[in-house]
Automatic annotation (TrEMBL):
Gene Ontology molecular function, alphabetical: DNA binding
Transmembrane stretches, start-end: none
InterPro entries: DNA-bd_dom_put_sf, HTH_17, SinI_DNA-bd
Entry-linked Gene3D superfamilies: 1.10.1660.10
Protein name: Excisionase
Domain of life, source organism: Bacteria
Pfam families to which the protein is assigned, alphabetical: HTH_17 (PF12728)
Organism: Salmonella oranienberg
Residue ranges constituting the Helix-turn-helix domain according to the UniProt record: 10-54
Length: 103
C-alpha cells in the first residue's frame, strides 16, 4: 500500500513557488507578519520554514484591486470625450476663421 505523506513544512523557495511570488517577498511578508514563519532552531542564521496552511491564509489575505479594468475603461471614455470635444472646438474655429470644412 502506497502512502503519500505531504511535506508539513516548506522552505522559503518552496513557499515562494506555491504563492507565485519571489523569495524576497516571502521574506518581507514574514517580517511584516503577513506570513507566519517558523525557525528551524534558535540559532540566528537558522532558516525559516512555512506551512501550506499559512501560505494559503497569506494568499487569501492579499487585497485584490478589481477596479483596474474599470479605470482603463474610464480612461478610454475620457479620451473619446476629449476627442469629441476637440472636434467640436476645431469646427467652431474653422467657422470663426471662415476656413473650409475638413472632409
Amino acid at each position: 500500500m502506497d502512502v503519500f505523506l505531504e511535506k508539513l513544512t516548506l522552505t522559503r523557495k518552496e513557499a515562494a513557488e506555491l504563492l507565485g511570488i519571489s523569495t524576497a517577498t516571502v521574506t518581507q511578508w514574514g517580517l511584516e507578519g503577513r506570513l507566519k514563519a517558523y525557525r528551524v532552531s534558535s540559532r540566528p542564521k537558522s532558516p525559516y520554514l512555512f506551512t501550506r496552511e499559512d501560505c494559503q491564509a497569506a494568499l487569501l489575505a492579499v487585497e485584490v484591486e478589481p477596479t483596474k479594468l474599470r479605470d482603463k475603461e474610464r480612461k478610454v471614455e475620457a479620451e473619446v470625450a476629449f476627442t469629441r470635444s476637440q472636434k467640436e472646438v476645431n469646427e467652431k474655429l474653422r467657422r470663426m476663421l471662415n476656413m473650409p470644412e475638413k472632409e
